[in-house]
């Protein structure tokens, strides 16, 4: 699988390769990376953030999320809204740091590291792992974290930042976003796009519709399954599986 070309300030890094980096309140650039950015949100990001805010997913989407979709794009993209303060600051940043730090988005956790997960075509899966991943380091001019002496590598930094769960759910969604039919530029109906938004981003409404038996392609749920799906993470995995079947059943 060909890997994308990288900007000059982005370099590929091996898992075992060491780099020096640390971010903390005493560093001069603290919270600079929370400004002048477009922060794309994954479904798992929204799950964590809406719980941190004490909102249901519909309220969170209305209050904090911008949805965009160009004509050539198969699915819409979701971004966290920014404050109109002349610096496009994150809505959750304060002078003392991130106000939702324990549930901050995966991109914030990973910074200055980036991870790309490329789903292998079905024909290749018998020869290779299902997901090919590679990692990069992003060096931006404002960041002083690289001057710190704490030695990191991909695995240690990922564990320190709690990225395991984020990668798990993002890889599950990648099976939809990188499906062979999507790669072939298949276009979906307006109803299918609404189902995409419902299942991945409006999870609380998805649960209501699922439990009411109002979703196509579903059968009545027993009490044990309903109890399990009261857990948002279990529900998101269920929603991803349902959406795959709905989108690609043909």
**Tally of individual helices:** 10
- Our measurement of the CA-to-CA distance between the termini, rounded to an integer number of angstroms, reads 26 Å
Side by side, the strands of the main sheet go: 1-10-9
Largest sheet: 3 strands, antiparallel
Strand content: 15-25%
Radius of gyration: 19 Å
Work out the helicity level. Answer: 25-40%
How many distinct domains? Answer: 2
Rough outline: globular
What's the count of strands? 11
Mean pLDDT: 93
Low-confidence stretches: none
H/E series: EEHHEEEEEEHEEEHHHHHHH
User: Which class of secondary structure composition applies to the elements?
Assistant: alpha+beta
Quick overview:
The chain is α+β, with helices and mostly antiparallel strands and 250 residues long.
Describe how the helices and strands are arranged:
Layout: E1 10-13, E2 19-20, H1 43-52, H2 57-64, E3 65-68, E4 77-80, E5 82-83, E6 89-90, E7 93-94, E8 97-98, H3 106-110, E9 113-119, E10 131-138, E11 151-152, H4 154-160, H5 164-177, H6 180-183, H7 190-200, H8 203-211, H9 223-228, H10 232-248
Antiparallel strand pairs: 1-10, 2-11, 3-4, 5-6, 7-8, 9-10
Helix pairs in contact: 1-2, 5-10, 7-10, 8-10
